[in-house]
Amino acid sequence: MDLDDLTPKKPKGHEIGKDLSTLSVDELRALIETLKGEIARIEAVLGEKQSSRNAAEAAFKR
Q1: DSSP one-letter string for the chain
Q2: Distance in Å from the first CA to the final CA of the chain
Q3: I need a surface site. Which of 19, 35, 37, 47 has the fewest CB within 10 A?
């Protein structure tokens, strides 16, 4: 027997397109807050990448 089989599996996070009808009102509210946080994190990384891209484009246009 493999020891990995005995290790409790971590529940997966939300998957896009997942059936939401099984979630309670509180779970849906928590999911919304989690997704808002994830959107903010993605937007921050996007802003950093856009700044880097703009700087590179400006350097190569000289």
Answers
A1: --GGGTSPPPPP---TT---TTS-HHHHHHHHHHHHHHHHHHHHHHHHHHHHHHHHHHHHT-
A2: 64
A3: 19
Q: Does the model's pTM come out above 0.90?
A: no
Structure tokens at 45: 């990384």
Place of tokens 């009102």: 25
Domain boundaries, the chain: 23-62
Distances (CA, A) of 12 to 16, 25, 48, 51, 52: 12, 19, 28, 33, 33
pLDDT tens sequence across 17-41: 999 999 999 999 999 999 999 999 9
